[in-house]
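[job 4417] fold queue: 2 targets
>>> target A
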Amino acid sequence: MIHKVNKAAVVVAALLAVMAALPIVVPGDYLLSYGINLLQYGTLATAWALFSGPTRYISLATTAFFGIGAYTVAVLGEALPWPAVLAVALLIGALVALVVGLSTLRLSGVHFVIFTFGLTELIRQLVTWYEVNVTKSIGRYIFLDMSQLEIYWQLLALLALALLTGWLIRRSRLGLALRVIGEDETVARHLGINTTAAKVLLFTISSVFMTLVGAVMSPRWTYIDPAIVFNANLSFQVLIMSLLGGAGHLLGPLAGVIPLTALFEFLSARFPNHFSVLLGVTFLVIVYLVPNGVVERVRLWFRRPAAMVAKEA
């Protein structure tokens, strides 16, 4: 088992190393831009699955934390060194996640989904109100000396860190507690598991990664406003990608990110006025055809012959 785990970890590490060298070996603006999109969605989907995968809580707060990271850079990007800006974004994201988690993670099911969706709209309206009434300007310009290649490598580092964090959590007592919570939260409480503390901790870790992705991505746009960085479509895209690949597996979300990033780019370029409708259709098709994700379907497909052989024996 240990050998198997180490082998998988080595393969993932080798793939990440190849991705790090790819923009240098095969230079090109389009390839680099596409790679940034892949890494953005890959990190967001992996972070989303850190919390929603084991607990089965469907969160639509991805956009809220992404926007918080982007606006932190817009406000502090020219006042502080880049590492300090990221540290402030991390602290703000963690603080908001703690407050939200402590006040809402007693909810479950559709109530939690609606709250997280409303959270994004609430933060967007608060930022819009502040910009209109205090700064008298709805948007902000971001002029940071940061190349596309630097953004690519930072996103790749975040993805590697998110995968490592997920790998460690799955092998910890926290990971076991979250799996029990996902199966039956009432049983988890009867077993003595502090379900609120476990959920809040993981919700905060997941949200911090989302906040940092927003911070790293913001210099790419030069100009941001609340409608851009608090676009609710992002939450649904990340959700669909995670469900397609399989939120219950560490690498499952990445299996959904790769094909859907290409599909969403095609749809947004060819059908910009109907993108939201097509996004909804994609969501329905995925939920109907592969409710547990592609990775789970493939795993069962490989296991089925072995079980049949064992039964026959």
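>>> target B
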Amino acid sequence: MTLSIREKKENVDGFMVSNGAVGFGISAASMTATWVWAASLYASASSGYTYGLSGPIHYGLWGALMILCIYPFGRHFRRVAPKAHTLAEVMHARHGRSSQLILAVSNIVGSIISLTANFTAAGALMEILTPFSFLHGVLIAAVGVLAYTLWSGFRASVMTDFAQLVAMMLAAALIVPMVFFATGGTDLFDQGFARLTDEQANFFSGEAFLEQGGPYLAAVLAYAIGNQTIAQRLFAVRQDRIKSTFMTATLGYAGTVIGLGMLGLLAVMVGLQPLNGDMNNIIPQMASEYLSPVMIGLLFIMVIGSLSSTADSDLAALSSLVMTDIYGKNLARGKANPQTMLYIGRITMIAAAALGVMFAVSNFNILDLLVFVGALWGALVFPVIASFYWDRITNLAFTVSVVVALGFFLVARFELLPLTGVVAVVMEFAAVIGGAVVFGFMAFGLFGKQVGFTVGAIAGVVLFPLIMGFLRDYPTLLGSLVSYGVSTVVCVAISLTNKERFDFALINERVTEFQLKDKQEAVR
């Protein structure tokens, strides 16, 4: 498929966002395939195993909600900056260098972690289902993805995503029912429920929400803002197809991930113990125990398809970030050479793949990585979204709010100070504000400013008695909400001291196609 792309002289804008002209079918498939990554499969199964009935819901539903909630903001972002390649590039046009670099660096870190998670999943799968070792699996995945993505960047990524999604959904539709009947079908419920704890058997488990669903819900907007793979597809799809693309991807993601998460629930009901205590081994173990060799082959295709679709997206995202935000806007200072940009993009892909392999050998816990990165991006949500709507936000407000929020997040998440007394009260109050910001922004995106402010205010009043004196015992969720709350308070406080107003029309003038700019300068 990649070789069919007949671009003898690759266009730098096409390499990054396909010139913003991708149609509905390809873009919806690409969005779904990118978001259904290996971590979605493994972490959803891990949630099902750990939290029982509600585990897959708390993973898959909030992930789907992320796609749904971001599209109204996405349409506005695209109207303000129709020729953009990255969100960080828009922040450069809106604020300046420090805001852009903060967002770009956080995007780069997130993409490398995502790449690492996918290579890790490949290694775990190879180690259990084939004679190859973990390292062999990681290397095969890295070289395979790099081989076709290096050719044409984002174009190759979206084209192969379509085929990978078809393979994934076909395999998922067959594998989950087959494992269910192989483990005993409806008879399994009689014996299996006895193995569940009270919390695992409770569909409305508070433990599952506080430890899994809550942090993931809090991270919903953060992933959408911090993940360049989403922004890249937002700037690539035709403007009149943004809504239909995101709605279709929401349904595709929810159905696939929640369904596969049920494998984790079946695993705990049959009494399976993860090999070496590693939750990432649940799906491969269930496959080797209950599926025929042919179906194991299908599972292999499904997981390889999911990790490949996200890994190639990560490589394309990393290349566009370095091409645009590191080289184009900083090193070249607005005088970027498109041919040099293409070289830099391809070198970035090779370097990123090497880093992903190196980190994958360390075998991180994928679920922990997701929660950590999501909370880290939470500090960026208010400054980034508000920068598209509020004309008083300054570069200073953006930068200081993110740095301060990150400090508070680290203290709360890793309990650098004991979460007692005044420290706990301050953190919990910040978490109340953070929760209000999350609900307010969701309502604002879907229903407008007035509803957003109303929902945010009501959420704050409702959350205050629920959080104060309670959330200090759940540092994961506390840290996520604190990062939202602190960045909002600091950003608003500094912005209110600014008397100047920003003209948003300037963003469209400052963010243009690199190839077009090159032609215009050649004419002059």
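[job 4417] complete. Note on B: DSSP finds 24 helices and no strands in the chain.
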